[in-house]
Amino acid sequence: MFFSLSKLRALHLGNCVGTDLPDSIGSLKHLRYIDLSHGRFRVLPRSICSLRNLQVLILFLNLVCIL
């Protein structure tokens, strides 16, 4: 899903009705900012740990229970 966005630096999915982030988010090596606020995400994929440039992860008012 995210393979064609390899240079992406910011991802805003606030108010998103999706419940799962794909493992391919780990391929966004340049990503620095992720906003998942007010969403319905429950689980963050393990691949999010490989985002070495990630500086901001916003989970405000979210359903995430497994990191």
UniProtKB/TrEMBL annotation:
Species for this entry: Acorus gramineus
Name of this chain's protein: Disease resistance R13L4/SHOC-2-like LRR domain-containing protein
Top-level taxon of origin: Eukaryota
Keywords: Repeat
SUPFAM superfamilies in the record: L domain-like
Residue ranges annotated for the Disease resistance R13L4/SHOC-2-like LRR domain, each copy included: 4-58
InterPro entries reported in the protein's UniProt record: LRR_dom_sf, LRR_R13L4/SHOC2-like
Family matches, as Pfam families: LRR_14
